[in-house]
């Protein structure tokens, strides 16, 4: 894990985004290691022009560029398992960034295998979460590979140094990333914002900073109804149309953006324990979270539902902490997926001015039964049984009182 | 627990609301037991005219009526401890009903003590949650008292029978409760809706059913900013004004109603395991949940924060299940309250068209430290340490690979 | 669930043991319901003469007797999954009784299916755990069948009444069960003792009461070494000999009995919350618990091991509470079994005078690596990395101190 | 945390044991830093001659030696809170070593305060657990102090190098520690063994290696009965005699040693995730674990008992991982201690040939009530209530079946 021992790599695969950090990393790696370098550009639906990034990599000296469309794999094998868990980190964050890194890193290892590289590198800083998510994945899947983390090796002491190096080496900053060069991460699921202008958590984000999701003030006057279809815990279509995993996310993203859905301004605990202030925009995730819970609410056994709630925060912390490929995540996923077999059905949401309301849900496996729920006379439940249940369930209180318990 | 053995009570304290169920219960109890009856009317901020209810109780034959203002106790000793836990049942429900019953039942026992009564009674049905919340409290606090649950004893097989009895006995149905006589519960925190017109979970609530919170379409065009102040986990003021516990809730309730905050349409698992569809309107709870999390996010140690997330679903289930006075709830509360000592500070929320956004938060005990969070050079964190951390943290993956682990 | 509505069964399958309770139940059922009755005798390795019980059932009036050897199924599909979880109820009890009932009940339903019966009955009392374990299984697997629980229906108010009825109906008490007629449960795994002579938890069991396992004073002077072989978490042989599941348990039972292994004198919380004092003798279970942990200790990823410890008490409570067929048990089992794929290898135990010591363990999937563990210089771990790990891991404490945290 | 920046300390407090590692550390620190050094010798009841160690420290060049008797504090404020939790790491280990380090480190900080030192040092290696337990405590209590960890700084590549340095510097190895110089840790609670001769986990410990506890073969022929008295979860006396915390541990230690109690041979996961094989001898801990559970079993509410079981593995991992002073440990302790208020009473144990059997327990707050437990007729429990309880508790299974659930 990392190149402390000055192993000389023969061939490095660098995860390249086209932004400042990975551009500098590319030039620095070529200069420092003077070996073959493949720039790997992962398409996770970040919506940038990947051929521009590819040309940039070539221009900066990459010996080879690989662009890989990972969108369907991302949606199906990463986002959806996480959504099956209703995962929220620290009660609120949908983890659109956290879930992207393990896939990029895993795909990077596949490229390394294909091209016969002996090293992988990434452009994440040495204080943040992404380095951990990259390197936990490398270690879990291929612990023998050499990992190079330029930010933890190079001599630049600050962003200013980095910009100077970029200048000296003809690394162009494009306009959008030039202004806030390190604060944005985007993919199919979300856009995140972090950094200078947000550093005082007492202050709101400056107007105009966020761009994915409409401000509430700019959302349509009329509400929109959207119906999402699920099979075994996974969304499989929208408004009556069967869709690929990517298709589901793209469709919901467009709806959510329009109506201002899924903004979150939060101070969270980073993996290393520092607190950081982030703003997230996750329109499709917010819609899916509500819709999945709605269908699930009809189907799950009550005790399964409760157990799932209790396991979720642990699961979420594992995903956040880059432990997607750790066996304890897989162990929890086995339990969660067991619960999802019957989670098939439809949820109807009403989106309006930034808000999501579930207004209907149905399932062929629904355990909702009006015969149980009604307050009219019924055949399935004799209210006198409640007396027995209550007398039995309070035996412990009576025993406690007899014993003069002080624990209340 | 319940009167199976035909013990003849001398004096019953009935929790009386003035609605159909408790009105019928009052008449029925007098007819059946022919003993002294005190009607106990708890003021939890339900916003109804309590003197009307008191006169009704007298007219229906109560020997004595006691109206007790429990609002401050409710806010301070019931709602706030629950909010300190960020409790949500099944990931979504703020439990405005669940938290009211234990206080009503506890206060009812105090009245029984004062008036020398040997029995308590409530008007909750034999299938629902409220009977359990009442009777768990009775059992935990005074297991020897006689508990009478008319719904589980009387001969009425349906609501139709009940209405017939009401008619025969001159029990008036007032307009609002006459139309949907059993579906509403209201207090300082929320209004809940359950019953016939909502029984098909696939269908939205009929227009006009809900009344506490403005429809999004009717909310003000302009957003409003609200600042909430906390001390040791409890809200103590709004917008710079120190307030009583009740005052905090009332102030936030008014703001939330205006802006359409806190509606939830959900299918939940009742204590007995049946599924039920409920709609809740909890404006102050929704605001406090976000605000408390915002201040807390600055203050809590990261591992304390994670442990608190993991304990919360268990805590929430205990509250939902009527186990407020059970020692395991108190045991968890001891842990939660330990974490809240430093949760002092302010949260700034922007409310608009049904949505809540945290836009700022500060605390004198904030652990947020820009020196840690910055991506510029700093003195407190050497990025090369990350390499050591990563090499150590991935030892287990390397060991696993050597052992040919199949568990990934 | 139970026959409150006076449904007239056509054909009852009774779980019959030959003891007093089920004998009385058989006669009472025939007398009360005057329908066809099949006595079902489950062989769980209780070591009693089943043909004696079968003849007794016939003599008492059973229309048909079915004896079914369930030992291999019991060991393989019930005991072993539970042992894979290292389950202990309340930290100590191996649950030899708890795990037997779900199988008996499930097999009883199979018999009911075969013979076309519409009702099942058991002889467990109305205060204990076994009724719940029977009836939870019936409800989970076939909720529509009529369940008859004679103890909760009949008119006998006490054991004395029961004995009188037995006397009147010529039901013989055999000597062993006559003296302590209801206190013993035995199967392949264990013998349990409960009841009158043990009712004062301050007093030791009378000498001579327990019979399965040798008193320490009577155990061999020399220790014995036993090696147990595991595949994917399950024991598959002893001392070099591959064995059936039953064979493993029988072999270990004999060794354990000889050396006085597996006695436990405990006050436990029954499902209904009363406390009860029980003595258990579980020789094979005690040996397997230690052996399984020993092999597992070599193989599991450390975080998987920790997660498994945290899930275990929940799992154990589910098994104890009769929820073997509940989906939340299966959900946890999915997680546990995920962890067991590589738990293959051998454990060497030394048993002596009532004690078990693990003295060796090995596994082809061992992650134990002397290169990591040694205090000599090594290539796999650079001690200076610990400094980085420590600096990173204590960031939160430094942040806490800066914030003047009072939470320590 | 650690001295990477080559800060020149003015005054170091070294935790000194008199063994090889801390002796070499003392000499090396004086040589390297040429500053004032206080040798701190903590008396945790390790039973070594502390004045010999003190003279050795002086002879090796310590400017000052402080010997502090920490036994009562160790027993009362460290061991007992941990025993109140029934803590076992990975299901088996009583953590006699883990619990000692935080106290040594905390006392070392007190000495540093007293003598005005600006640095602390310890002799723990860079791969093991103890460095972490020391340094987590330093960081939690005084994050600003300079920490020096010679093992992670010095040039010695192996134990052989260390021995050579010791030879060159006239550091004597005493006989006992010379043969297995780094493998032993002893205190009031236990002795642990780790290292070369135990490195193959498939092989038993060589005969004669262990010395604290009698081999079973050498234990008395007759059993001994011991009664332990508890108040609010803490042991306060033995066999009718009130004792100090130290007195309790010493008394039980002597009994346990004689009867061969408390040996454990285990492969455990170190904090860094490597597996290590250890043998522990913890006679008093084993006796207290059983005795505490016995008294507790009479007193705890059943749901409190279950919650405590579920929290324990998390608590144990925190203690093992050196997080004694971390707020999450204190948070869990708050919950655990809440449960212990009534855990007052006596447990009677029979110890014989290496085994512990609880044979009796009593408490003034016992909830054990023969009226509930009996199978005779009683007034407190109507068996027919069980039918109601069962019908209610199985509603969910019936609902599941109707819905055609596949999750079983």
Automatic annotation (TrEMBL), chains A, B, C, D:
Localized where? Cytoplasm
EC number(s): the record gives: 6.3.4.5
Pathway note? Amino-acid biosynthesis; L-arginine biosynthesis; L-arginine from L-ornithine and carbamoyl phosphate: step 2/3
What Gene3D superfamilies does this protein's entry cite?
A: Argininosuccinate synthetase, chain A, domain 2, HUPs
Chain segments annotated as transmembrane:
12-29
**GO terms, molecular function:** argininosuccinate synthase activity; ATP binding
> Is the keyword Glycoprotein assigned to this protein?
no
Recorded GO CC terms: cytoplasm
Q: Which UniProt keywords apply?
A: Amino-acid biosynthesis, Arginine biosynthesis, ATP-binding, Cytoplasm, Ligase, Membrane, Nucleotide-binding, Transmembrane, Transmembrane helix
Task: Enumerate the Gene Ontology biological process terms.
Answer: argininosuccinate metabolic process; L-arginine biosynthetic process; urea cycle
Subunit details? Homotetramer.
> Can you name this protein?
Argininosuccinate synthase
């Amino acid at each position: 894990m990392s190149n402390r021992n000055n192993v000389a790599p023969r061939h490095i695969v660098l995860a390249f985004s086209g932004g400042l950090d990975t551009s500098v990393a590319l030039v620095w790696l070529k200069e420092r290691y003077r070996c073959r370098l493949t720039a790997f550009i992962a398409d996770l639906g970040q919506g940038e022009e990947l051929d521009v990034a590819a040309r940039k990599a070539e221009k900066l000296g990459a010996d080879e560029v690989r662009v890989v469309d990972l969108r369907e794999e991302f949606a199906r094998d990463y986002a959806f398992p996480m959504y099956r868990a209703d995962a929220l980190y620290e009660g609120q964050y949908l983890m659109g960034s956290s879930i992207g890194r393990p896939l990029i890193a895993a795909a990077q290892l596949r490229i390394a295998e294909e091209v016969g590289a002996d090293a992988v590198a990434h452009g994440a800083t040495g204080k943040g979460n992404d380095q951990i998510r990259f390197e936990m994945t490398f270690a879990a899947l291929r612990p023998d590979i050499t990992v190079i983390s330029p930010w933890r090796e190079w001599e630049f002491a600050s962003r200013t140094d980095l910009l100077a190096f970029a200048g000296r080496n003809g690394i162009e900053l494009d306009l959008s990333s030039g202004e806030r060069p390190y604060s944005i991460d985007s993919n199919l699921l979300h856009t995140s914002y972090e950094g200078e202008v947000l550093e005082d958590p007492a202050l709101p984000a400056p107007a105009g900073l966020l761009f994915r999701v409409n401000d509430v003030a700019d959302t349509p006057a009329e509400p929109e109804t959207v119906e999402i279809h699920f099979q075994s815990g996974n969304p499989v279509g929208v408004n009556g149309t069967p869709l690929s995993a990517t298709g589901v996310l793209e469709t919901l993203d467009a709806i959510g953006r329009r109506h201002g859905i899924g903004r979150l301004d939060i101070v969270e605990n980073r993996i290393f324990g520092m607190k950081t202030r982030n703003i997230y925009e996750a329109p499709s995730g917010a819609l899916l979270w509500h819709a999945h819970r709605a269908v699930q609410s009809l189907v799950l056994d009550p005790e399964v539902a409760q157990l799932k709630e209790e396991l979720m925060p642990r699961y979420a912390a594992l995903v956040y902490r880059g432990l997607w490929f750790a066996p304890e995540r897989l162990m929890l996923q086995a339990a969660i997926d067991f619960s999802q077999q019957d989670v098939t059905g439809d949820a109807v949401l009403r989106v309006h001015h930034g808000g999501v309301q579930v207004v209907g849900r149905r399932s062929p496996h629904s355990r909702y039964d009006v015969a149980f729920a009604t307050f009219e006379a019924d055949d399935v439940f004799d209210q006198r049984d409640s007396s027995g249940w209550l007398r039995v369930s309070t035996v412990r209180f009576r025993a406690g009182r007899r014993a003069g318990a002080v624990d209340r």
